[in-house]
Amino acid sequence: MDYVYSPPPTPVGWLFDRLDRYQDMSRPAVWTEEGKGYWIFTDHDALLEGLQQADLWSSAVVDPTQQDPDYMWIPIMLDPPLHAKWRRLLGAWFTPARTKSLKEEQQRLAAQLIERLRDKGECDYVRDFAQVLPSIVFLQIMGMPLEKLDEFMVWEHQILHGNTESDPDRSLQAAGLHKVMQYFGELLAERRANPDPDAQDIVSAAITWEIDGTPIPDADLINCLLQLFMAGLDTVAGEASYFMYHLAKHPEDRRRIASEPELIPHAVEELLRVYPIVQTARKATRDADFHGCPVKAGQVAHFPLSLASRDEKAHPRARTVDLDRKETRHLAFGAGPHRCPGSHLGRQELAVMMEEWHRQIPDYELVEEPTEHGLVLGLNSLPLRWNRP
């Protein structure tokens, strides 16, 4: 518990491997001197309890290296009770029933996208499919123009995929944030000026939202739409890319997915368990002894969700994908009040993508090892090839 870790100047190996090493170094936490210094919790139980204990761990921080952020992403950076009021507004858009109603269109879209790729015999799975399908679904839910997708993806990349080498002074991130917030400000103004009474999208609904009977200021609406923008254009694509990387590297699992499509819903849960991409942070509201860690008020803690479900104490052979595993509990969608409201949609999209791909392209191989990015983990590319039909 007294282990102090100072990160190397450049990442070594895969990001999941780096996180696993924290767990191997010390439990239930490691203290790192990176930035201003922060805790990294490494045990399943500490991670779960910390995410559930909002009175001790404030959500005012999402990146442990930015401990006093000058931004407020809504609702992910809100604490109770205000957080719950925003969740009620958003929850209606991601219910199981509404999600299920979108499935047929998602299947049609996935089949169409894959048909266009199939005859080429190769693709970059990330760029050509994983980022495209969930982004189109998201833009339709939000009521945003599909023709601007490429521009949106550039902005999203600037916000979430930079690091100390590519964006040392965070200027690219700041530029991306400014562009997205300016865009949503203009979009809200346009929707107010030209309301469509038949519109069924989040942006059109947002201009009518109230909290405690008071209309929500545009600044807060923009921060909420920004948060949805980042989640909608990034998380499903990141998960789907790791899924396909695993299947390309493990042909026995790939063959089972292709020959036993009924296994796919279970496989989605097992792959989510082994490859959770979200990392988040919290700030201590008071001094406390938390799982043996002498936490001080104002200290920041890193909560990598992968270390919960890849913990051998919680799951036998936790870092290994086992498509026959009977229990696939995981924290890939978080826990506590901030558990992802889009979990039903994410699961459905991942299952549709896996099913439709393997129906049309059951045999494929990795061309070269891809590279990664994180705060929210993901692959920059995933080059695949297969025999043309």
Automatic annotation (TrEMBL):
Keywords: Heme, Iron, Metal-binding, Monooxygenase, Oxidoreductase. Gene3D superfamilies: Cytochrome P450. It holds the Pfam family p450. CDD domains: P450cam-like. Belongs to the cytochrome P450 family. PANTHER family: P450, PUTATIVE (EUROFUNG)-RELATED. This is Cytochrome P450. It comes from Streptomyces chlorus.
